Amino acid sequence: MKSQEYMNTWGKDNPKSVCACGHTGDGGNSQHADRFQLGHGVCLVRDCNCQQFTWVEWTDEAKTALELR
Ligand SMILES: [Zn+2]
Ligand SMILES: [Zn+2]
User: Fold this and answer.
1) Which-ligand-closest: CA of 49?
2) Centroid of ligand 2 to alpha carbon of 4 (angstroms)
3) What is the distance in A from the centroid of ligand 1 to the CA of 50?
4) pLDDT (tens digit per residue) in 5-53
5) Is residue 44 classed exposed, middle or buried when 0-12, 13-18 and 19+ CB atoms within 10 A define those classes?
6) Separation of 21 CA from ligand 2 center, angstroms?
7) Which-ligand-closest: CA of 20?
């Protein structure tokens, strides 16, 4: 049950999703600021104008854990 274990811990140490701006978000160490939730604030990447994380897809790591590929 690898995916179940991942579900219980993901988002704390690693971003689990990709934002509409193309940068990672939604979790610890994401490229978006921590606001409301980990990685849901403004994008911290230089020259990126993204003001708030907007979910578009899972990260590769999350896809693998969720067996979406
Ligand atoms: Zn963004
Ligand atoms: Zn961005």
Assistant:
1) 2
2) 29
3) 5
4) 777 777 888 999 999 999 999 999 999 999 989 999 999 999 999 999 9
5) middle
6) 5
7) 1
Predicted pLDDT of residue 66: 86
State in Å: Cα 44 to ligand 2 middle.
Answer: 7
* Every domain of the chain and the residues it spans: 2-65
What's the pTM value of the predicted model, to 2 decimals? 0.85
DSSP state string for 9-52: HTTSSS--EEETTSSEESSTT-SB--BSBTT-S-B-STT----S
Predicted confidence at residue 18, as pLDDT, reads 97
